[in-house]
Design a protein that fits this description.
The protein is an all-alpha fold. The chain has two domains: about 1-50, Arc Repressor Mutant, subunit A; about 55-205, Tetracycline Repressor, domain 2 (Orthogonal Bundle), CATH 1.10.357. It is built from ten helices and no strands. α1 (about 5-25) crosses α6. It is elongated, with a radius of gyration of 20 Å. The model has no long low-confidence stretch (mean pLDDT about 90).
């Protein structure tokens, strides 16, 4: 006799079914009927866990965010306690997503779902607030670190949505530059009145 799935296993089965549909067909074809069929479950079984499409989408966001957070933690531990370690982990995890061709359709569809469903949009906003807080705590000058985050996010969106993304050779150079920028300048621990970024800008102006 086969073992019955736990609620967690069933939810994971549904999230993986959703992900396959999004990769293959996009958000338009993500219906509750399609998900239940893809997962090999009855529609009643799906509705037991997710009574609406919005609740399913919100759960799907949490599922993929949890996977991203797990990968972030692994990469952050690899980076150790060096300044900019968490920002470097964020950059590396984001870059891994865009260099996996399987992810392009999935994340483009998830982004479209975020725009459509308020609960998913709010969840992502909360995530970015937390990521930004950790980036600013990475012992780099916070303005510099934020600029690097914007470069990472910009590359991610360009690749995911095909907004004039760079070719492979240029992308690799951009990635190398981004990773190098995660190593400084450091937060000015001595002179709180003038950040290292402000000093850098003054040097450019002069």
């Amino acid at each position: 006799m086969s073992q019955r799935r736990t609620a967690l296993e069933t939810r994971q089965l549904l999230f993986e079914a959703c992900s396959r549909i999004l990769r293959r067909e996009g958000l338009t074809n993500l219906t509750l009927d399609a998900v239940s069929e893809e997962a090999g479950l009855s529609k009643g079984g799906l509705l037991y866990h997710f009574p609406t499409k919005e609740s399913l989408i919100e759960g799907l966001f949490e599922y993929h965010n949890d996977k991203f957070e797990t990968r972030l933690q692994i990469l952050a531990e690899e980076e150790g306690d060096e300044p900019g370690a968490w920002l470097r982990a964020y950059a590396r995890a984001s870059i891994e997503q865009i260099t996996d061709s399987d992810n392009a359709g999935l994340y483009a569809s998830l982004f479209a779902a975020e725009e459509k469903y308020a609960s998913a949009h709010q969840a992502m906003r909360r995530k970015y607030v937390d990521w930004q807080r950790r980036i600013e705590a990475s012992r780099l000058d916070p303005t510099w670190a934020t600029l690097v985050r914007f470069a990472v996010d910009g590359l991610w969106f360009a690749e995911m949505h095909k907004y004039a993304p760079p070719d492979e050779a240029r992308r690799q150079k951009i990635i190398e530059l981004i990773l190098s920028l995660t190593r400084g300048p450091l937060r000015d621990e001595v002179n709180d009145e003038q950040s290292t970024t402000e000093t850098y800008l003054e040097n450019i102006r002069s």
